[in-house]
Amino acid sequence: MFRENIISELKEKIKQNPTDIENYKNLSNYYIGSNDLNNAMQVYKEILKIAPCDFQSLINLGSIYFYKKSYLEAIECYNKAISIEPNNYASYYNLGNIYAEIDNFELSLSNYEKALKINPQKAEIYNALGYLYQDIDNLDTASKYYSKAIEIEPLNNEYYINLANIEQKKGNNIDALTYYEKASEINPNDEKAILCLANTYAAVKNFNKAKELYDKAIEINPAYYSAWVCKAITYCDNNKAQDAIELLKHAIEIEPEKANAYILLANILVDEKRYEEALIIYKTASKILTKDPKISTFIANTYVMLDDYIQAAKYYKKAMKQAPKDNEIKLIYIEMANSYTNAKMKGIK
Hints:
The protein has 349 residues and is an all-alpha fold. The chain contains 20 helices and no strands. The mean pLDDT is 92.
């Protein structure tokens, strides 16, 4: 009721003075604060009818388009904003984000560099450049940009996490631990930093410390799906398969539409020779990832374990149809067919 009253009051002010864009901006800000992007978008469009050169409304409208993956419309907004304020870094930075999202490295880099030239002390630009180079596996350059972001904003824990991710990818787990620890010191309740720290301790085989941190991340956010999954993987790696199974079942309860917990659970069940249970789980995952050849192959492999070559052939053929250029699946299918033929020749069905 409170929300409706505020909206009604703002709309009444607009009605009384339809050319005063401040009332529109107050309404759009309220919609943004309520995460009502569709109505916010309509209000920004109304503002731009009255004031076509309102820079901030163009930026905000472009950001909504970007969020909705309407990239062409977002680009149009940002380019118009550039024509109005060519020396404002925000338009170039946002264009860089769009081109990074659609994997156009050159245009993304060009726009980030323009943003940086205008505002060389903006840490978020260096961080974005770090992501850009990380995506093409240029880890040294990514590390340089993340370090520069930290130099400018030494209390931003996200930048430490990003730098730690680079060190972990390089295999420098000790350095990664240092940066993850720093991130969690800055924000002790950052579940992402704590989870990354737990995963790194798991990588250096410190199971007890990893377990402690997984539990801490889950205590902060009991519905943290990734924490339950990562904890399950660590338990499985430490020969605690039944514990891992229970953790993955809980992860599935939290996010029943995400497939990776189903796949991991089924893989463990196969290792435990619980093939019939594994098939049920794999088939549930295949309903989520309907075109994934890996799941079809997993199902086929499980049927082979049960000596059900007819069903195995069915799913290998499905996998080949899903990935016609994957020669490995074809080789597995041929090997299975040969095994079946040899078994038949020996009189074993």
